[in-house]
């Protein structure tokens, strides 16, 4: 017969209370997890809410009607070589553009993940390349059609470069949508106190982690067209505007350069890179906490039949 070791009473009491504590902590952890993990139904409701919010925040742009000019001067004769030649563009189709850059909560609701470095539900989504931005637009289109929030003849896409600059300028011909000057007298270096009211840039972004729309909009009610994040557009990169289309369409002629265009400047940039005409060349693999997107809703373009 083996002798069974008996622990002193105080040890048995400690083991007992440790066991009780473990059960309590385990139950609490399960309770917290249950509270934090939304149900499938809650996820669907939140996604629908965000989809409706996205549609409600679209701004209708009607070139040639009301305050929206039919034509504008794109580029800058006094800017960078890539902004030249300055040329007239005439837009003929109405479209809707998002009032804000795509926020992280909408991106996550559609794509199932949030790649952003600087997290915040209404912060602009970042850390995605051009393909990911385009993929988001395609999936958002499907979700909006599914819930009958847009028609089958409509789609969500990236703006063309001409549409983007047209909306950024908002009827102005100055360097920025609020005028030619970003700095006040006495501003030095990266300071740009006039721009501070409209844009997040390297002179005022330190210590800020803002939601979309925290600063003043441009004259057409669009926020963060200058600064916050660079915004992808649909066009591939061309070194200048020689032979660029004059109707606002995507400049999608054959090009050996797979890079794309981003516009608007970002919180990482000096004020002079936030001008309405400034362009950035972005390689296909580039992801950055300074790169995001803004969406357009438009009619699906009809393919013209060739005449025989």
Automatic annotation (TrEMBL):
Q: Which EC number(s) does the record attach to this protein?
A: 2.7.11.1
InterPro entries with a match to the protein in the record = CTDL_fold, Sulfatase_Mod_Factor_Kinase, SUMF_dom, SUMF_sf
- The Sulfatase-modifying factor enzyme-like domain extends over 71-297
SUPFAM superfamilies for the chain: C-type lectin-like
Q: Which GO terms describe its molecular function?
A: formylglycine-generating oxidase activity; protein serine/threonine kinase activity
User: What is the enzyme's main class?
Assistant: transferase
Q: Which domain of life is it from?
A: Bacteria
Record keywords: Kinase, Transferase
Q: Does the keyword Kinase apply?
A: yes
User: PANTHER family per the record?
Assistant: FORMYLGLYCINE-GENERATING ENZYME, SULFATASE MODIFYING FACTOR 1, 2
Q: What is this protein called?
A: Serine/threonine-protein kinase pkn1
Species the sequence originates in: Gimesia panareensis
**What would be the name of the gene that encodes this protein?**
pkn1_6
């Amino acid at each position: 017969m083996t002798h069974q070791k008996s622990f002193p009473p105080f040890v048995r009491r400690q083991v007992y209370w440790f066991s009780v504590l473990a059960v309590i902590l385990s139950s609490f952890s399960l309770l917290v997890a249950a509270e934090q993990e939304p149900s499938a139904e809650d996820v669907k409701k939140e996604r629908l809410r965000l989809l409706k919010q996205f549609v409600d925040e679209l701004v209708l742009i009607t070139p040639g009607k009301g305050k929206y000019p039919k034509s504008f001067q794109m580029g800058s004769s006094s800017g960078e070589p890539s902004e030249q030649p300055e040329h007239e563009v005439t837009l003929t189709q109405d479209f809707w553009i998002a009032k804000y850059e795509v926020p992280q909560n909408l991106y996550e609701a559609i794509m199932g993940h949030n790649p952003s470095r600087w997290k915040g539900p209404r912060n602009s989504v970042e850390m995605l390349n051009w393909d990911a931005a385009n993929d988001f637009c395609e999936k958002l289109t499907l979700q909006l059609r599914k819930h009958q929030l847009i028609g089958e003849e409509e789609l969500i896409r990236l703006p063309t470069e001409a549409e983007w600059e047209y909306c950024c300028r908002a009827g102005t011909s100055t360097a920025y949508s609020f005028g030619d000057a970003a700095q006040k007298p006495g501003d030095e270096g990266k300071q740009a106190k006039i721009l501070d009211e409209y844009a997040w840039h390297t002179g005022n972004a330190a210590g800020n982690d803002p939601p979309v729309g925290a600063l003043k909009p441009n004259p057409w009610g669009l926020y963060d067209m200058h600064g916050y994040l660079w915004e992808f557009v649909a066009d591939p990169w061309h070194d200048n505007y020689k032979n660029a289309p004059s109707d606002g369409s995507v400049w999608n002629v054959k090009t050996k350069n797979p890079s794309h265009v981003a516009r608007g400047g970002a919180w990482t940039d000096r004020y002079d890179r936030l001008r309405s005409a400034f362009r950035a060349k972005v390689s296909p693999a580039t992801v950055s906490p300074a790169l995001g997107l803004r969406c357009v809703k438009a009619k699906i373009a009809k393919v013209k039949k060739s005449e025989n």
